[in-house]
Amino acid sequence: MGYGEAAEYEPGAEFYDLMMGDRTAHIDFYSGLALPGQTSFVDLGCGTGVVTAAVARAMRIQSPDRSLRICGIDGSMRMLERAQAHHADIEWVQGDLRHVASMEPFELATCCFHTLQVFDDDGLALVLQSARRLLVTGGRFAFDLYRPNWSVIGAEPRTRTVRSLVDARGRPLRIDEESNFDPATEIYALHWTLRHDDAASEKLAEFHFRFWQHEPEAVEAHLGAARFSVIERYGDLDKSAFGTISKRQVLVCEAL
Fold first, then answer.
1. For residue 141, what are the β-bridge partners?
2. How confident is the model at residue 2 (pLDDT cuts 50, 70, 90)?
3. pLDDT score for 11
4. Are residues 123 and 162 in the same domain?
5. How would you classify residue 114: left for phi > 0, otherwise alpha for psi between -120 and 50, otherwise beta?
6. What DSSP assignment string belongs to 184-196?
7. Lowest mean pLDDT: which of 12-16, 136-140, 213-217?
8. What DSSP designation does 204 have?
9. In 183-245, alpha helices (H)
10. Which terminus of the chain faces fewer neighbouring Cβ atoms within 10 Å, N or C?
């Protein structure tokens, strides 16, 4: 993910994929961006590489006779180690998304799972500038983030169980969530705790998430400043139309 926040993902990296649950919607949307003839792709904030690998598979299908250059960039070394263990044929790079080192440009870039929301307004602008530097002119950049839902995130702090699941041995687990919103900074903070579904059980893993809120108008202004043009905008990963009640902002942009 990145940056000061990257260290917060390190302790629970081995449980990250289990805790995130079904990511079919993300895989389907981003894999659908692969086009015939494309040979290069970079995934910003790649985590354990689930979407990175899925897009790579789609590109191989679209361009079976071509050599591909696939790269995933993330701030968490432990996440990247897990990605490397499962997908050794992909280049995994540790780095701050706001200041990505110079690389040969790519044709396609993505940033999934509302990763852009771990950055404040200035950080968002820097990440978009990094994305532009990583792309050839005419390349595409796609990302998703939540549209601010002030009535939900502004509610009183609460604790609840957000997900029930089972581990590899079939034992029931649960994820407990503590949430809090700071109106002064507009940071929505979540603390997830994974434990066996037993009131007395010890914690298996913890994650601390801090999400800044970015209105659609601000996102579009930053894209323009970074030399991107929006070519597709959806309200969710199913490509539903974007509107006032849309849950997400899902954008596909062209590098100018």
1. 109, 253
2. very low
3. 61
4. no
5. left
6. TTTEEEEEEEEEE
7. 12-16
8. E
9. 216-225
10. C
Same domain, 97 and 7: yes
Nearest one of 125, 163, 154, 141 to 256, comparing CA atoms: 141
Are residues 165 and 83 located together in one domain of the fold?
Answer: no
Domain residues for the domain of 121 are 3-147+214-255
Cα(242)–Cα(250) distance, integer angstroms: 8
Task: Tell me, yes or no, whether 236 and 132 share the same domain.
Answer: yes
139 and 61 inside one domain: yes
Calculate mean pLDDT across residues 3-8.
52
At 27, is the pLDDT very low, low, confident or very high (cuts 50, 70, 90)? very high
- Residue listed under structure tokens 């407990």: 176
Smallest Cα–Cα separation from 61: which of 84, 23, 41, 34? 34
The pTM assigned to this predicted structure is 0.93
Burial of 218 (0-12, 13-18, 19+ CB in 10 A): middle
State the Cα–Cα distance between residues 89 and 86, nearest whole angstrom. Answer: 9
| pLDDT-based confidence at residue 8 (cuts at 50, 70, 90) | low
At 59-116, the pLDDT tens digits run 999 999 889 999 999 999 999 999 999 999 999 999 999 999 889 999 999 999 999 9
**How far apart are alpha carbons 57 and 64 in whole angstroms?**
10
Neighbours of 183 (CB within 10 A): 9
Per-residue pLDDT, 67: 93
Q: Into how many domains does the chain fold?
A: 2
Q: By the 8 A CB rule, do 72 and 54 touch?
A: no
